[in-house]
Specification:
There is one protein chain. This protein folds into 2 domains: 91 residues, Leucine Dehydrogenase, chain A, domain 1 (Rossmann fold, 3-Layer(aba) Sandwich), CATH 3.40.50; 131 residues, Rossmann fold (3-Layer(aba) Sandwich), CATH 3.40.50.720. Helices cover 41% and strands 16% of the residues. The chain is built from 10 helices and 11 strands. The strands form 3 sheets. Strands 1-11-8-7-5-6 form a 6-stranded parallel sheet, sandwiched between helices. A 3-stranded parallel sheet has the order 3-2-4, sandwiched between helices. The structure holds guanine. Guanine (GUN) binds next to strand 4 and helix 6. The site of guanine (GUN) has 8 residues, from strand 4 and helix 6.
Length: 293
Amino acid sequence: MTEVIDGKRVAEDVVSKVKALTSELSAKGATKPGLAVVIVGEDPASQVYVASKSRTAKECGFHSLQHTLPADTTEEQLLQIIGDLNADKSIHGILVQLPLPGHIDAGKVIQTIAPEKDVDGFHFINVGKLGTGELETAFVPCTPAGSMLLIERVRGKDLSGLNAVVVGRSNIVGKPMANLLLAANCTVTIAHSRTRDLPALARTADILVAAVGRPEMVKGDWVKPGATVIDVGINRIPAPEKGEGKSRLVGDVAYAEAAKAAGAITPVPGGVGPMTIAMLMANTVASAYLAAG
Ligand code: GUN
């Protein structure tokens, strides 16, 4: 029987641990965890994500701050806000929602965030720590960190010697995911748009992670029998069968056919998605603990 990995439930477990840690911090008289989320412009998907991040932060008992800035905000104004948040003792985590409008240099903005408040794990210091295996003190990007937790729930903590194939090489998911799997002693291959014979490569994977942003690209016959399949994609596609103008969410994996071969698989929605926000909360409470000493 294929296990359908319940990301919503695992995310709820993570959030309840975060709540307990937050209470512990306040019992010690320390500052409660503070998360600042900054959004520039009106991208509807980003607005939904940001609202959800702020809501969960409040639910965790955090001090939750949201800066909603107009699309014509200058890079200088944004850098000034980040500078102020870096200096603000009530803030332990700063997240600038991506993508940013084209006139702002996103790389420069990310590198301005203090590494010890970089709960997204995008600053070079945190990327470098992950790449060199300094996992104890690194902030790890939330989506790969959450995916890793789901993989460990299914396969246990010892992933030694397993073949892992990560499809997608983004800085936000593919590369950090590959580094996490490598740190866990998997044999890791990163596949991308230039990879030759991707289906055959995917079939070598005990752990197959799809993070490409292409609806239902990974087919059932790409999946090795018994493999753990982690679908990071969230794609909205037209669903005329539900009525005119309707749409539905699908992952990067053709779920129904892949589920037949897989040992365990994440659904979309309800798989990796809820884990991203939960891990953001986990990173923020960890940051508050470090600040409390
Ligand atoms: N946009 C899409 N995913 C993410 C993420 O994990 N962090 C930020 N800051 N922006 C995103």
